[in-house]
Amino acid sequence: MASPPRVALVSMPFHSQFRPSIQLGLLKAIAGAHGFPAETFHLNLEFADLIGAGAYEAIGDVGRSFLGDWLFAAAAFPGPAPGPGAPVPADEPFLRAALPDVAHPLEFLRSVREEQVPRFLDRLMAEIPWGGFDVVGFTSTFQQNLASFALAARIKAAHPAVVTLFGGANFEGEMGVELTGAIGCVDYAVIGEGDEAFPEFLRALATGADPAAVPGVVCRRDGGVTAVGHRPPFTRLDELPMPDYTEYFDRAERLGLLTRAPRRDVAIPFESSRGCWWGAKHHCTFCGLNGTGMAFRSKSPGRVRQELAQAARRYRSFRFEAVDNILDMAYLRTLLAELVAAGTDYEIFYELKSNLTRDQLRLLRQAGVSRVQPGIESLSTPVLRLMRKGVTGIQNVNTLRWARYYGIKVHWNLLFGFPGERAADYERQEALLPLLAHLSPPGAPTRIWMERFSPIFADPAAFPARYRRPHRGYGQIYPESVDLERIAYFFEYEFDGSVPEETMDGTRRVVRAWRDAWRAPERPTLTFRHAEGFLQIEDARTPAEAGTFTFDGPLAAIYLSCADRPVTAAAMHGRLDPGPSRDEVTGALAEFCDRGLMMRDGDQFLALALPATAGR
Amino acid sequence: MADELPVTEDELRNLATKLDEFARTLSETERGVLLTIMHRFGRPAAEPAPAVRAGLLSEGFRDAYERGRGTAFRTVAESAKGGSIQDALDGPSVENSVQHSGPDTEPPR
Ligand code: SF4
């Protein structure tokens, strides 16, 4: 190939329509920076427009149901895939819950699979001149495999000279090797991070060198799959170009999914770090993220600020979503403090580690962090210890408290199913939950999924399972020629020593009621007002039965002394000077706990009410 | 002797903060051991545990609770109702519960 290869980069369903693909945006910019102009195609938007934006997003959200992949299975593997009569990989109650706006979900899904998917693919083949490209790259995460294979197969059939290249989380490690070996339309795949492998691959094509000789790139050859070593995670993040999302916005506006306006209320993905500094030391037992790239690397604060400012101006949006797995704690001193000083009006989402102090949460909010996923997976310290979370239940509650106070929305979960857990741990947690009605509710309790790369998958000696097999959904979308054991990310399993489903029935009921209470016009509250030596706690966790507690002198001081963060009785006693005896303090703490105004975790105590005065 | 040292409130607060931080690094058993030692150090080992819960302080709990909450003249009651933090909040997450909840934020490959 004498001239630079012409490159198309494609994002297929079911990547969310609500945000551009950072994979596409970044790879386009990287290719351009190396002298290889690339065009991006957010074709997922076309499909969302075709089947309806609500249904599209709902299917994308239920990733582990394999619904999205199932819709494209017959198109991806016309002969060997489970055929037209193949059962939908989910039962009707699940479908009704997943697609609440669709009147007849089963009929709808069948018509999408049998009529709309073929029509969609035909249209893409007719409208896009694929033969004009030398390379078509597909990025694939979660439910993007089958739609990508379906289009790639058609492109290869119509234009055999076009080279297809795959990458993304679905091609991490062994999964990518097996998919490259088993799926005919996959010419090459990048295993792991593509920042260097992708431009080197293009250069190899341009110079006539063997692309399979590029470290991190694999292909099918001589009845096997080539592999030239593993490429270490990319560290020089500041050298990466800014992602280019222009095509995403143009397409969304052209399709009418997004109305043209001076300001776009769209979350722009940005990346300030890769890997996980916690996981590098103490890998959370259930976590399958960062398969081969756990080592933590972050961008300089100046570079992140520049990226946010440039993206806000270029895409006319002030909303951002960090794709990071965990916030770089150094940013609390640097990036976030600088954003506060700069007075920016960003709204930022971050994933972070949950043992944050009140001051840190205040800073986050002031810097514009309005939504977080702090990895609160449980409020039980013994269970958190089993999952190696490095945080206690009381610390998690405190994070929920101050996030609520500063107006930071928290996404969080209640996980169970860890070997060694005890029903009593969950009973204690269940008893605590109603006391937290004034804090943001969790999602429904979920048994942990077994994900490839997680310790519970990778270390069967430490986590012996009675059985382990690829999730049954894979069998409903892949032909028999594919080794499911090697391509699966989700596995079915059973651990000895984990609680049965029924143990969580009560918790499920409490969580449902909690979420319902938060949908009511008046949300539950628990606030305190303080004058010197005097304290009132207004308890409206059940708004219809609101009440007020009034405390004077030492009791007010005791309550306030654990209002900022968890404190031990011994430490509290030391602070109350002159004050009551230690036994009196201990007794008072027990009484506060009995009244549901405080919680206790081990020897630590935490006031549950929040200051009535906002923003301190 | 400790009780002969002039101790300021600030010094006590600093020590308490450090003790809190230190306590966080200990396991539950270690904390129990430490508390027992501190307890023993503070009084004769044979002294029985106190039978009363909060002693004199428990009086303060007796009539602490009343039904209802803040009130105001009817004309201003509406504006006095509710906490201001409530207005700053967004609705609860309605997403499906997933192991890594929040947006689909996989790093680029
Ligand atoms: S769950 Fe979060 S904190 Fe734990 S290892 Fe995974 S990314 Fe890191």
Automatic annotation (TrEMBL), chain A:
InterPro entries: Aldolase_TIM, BchE-like, Cobalamin-bd, Elp3/MiaA/NifB-like_rSAM, rSAM, rSAM_ocin_1, rSAM_sf
Spans through the membrane: none
Highest taxon, organism lineage: Bacteria
Cofactor (UniProt): [4Fe-4S] cluster
A cellular component annotation (GO) from this entry: cytosol
Domain B12-binding, residue spans: 67-212
Record's keyword terms, sorted: Iron, Iron-sulfur, Metal-binding, S-adenosyl-L-methionine
Residues annotated as domain Radical SAM core: 260-480
Any one GO MF annotation of this record: iron-sulfur cluster binding
Name of this protein: RiPP maturation radical SAM protein 1
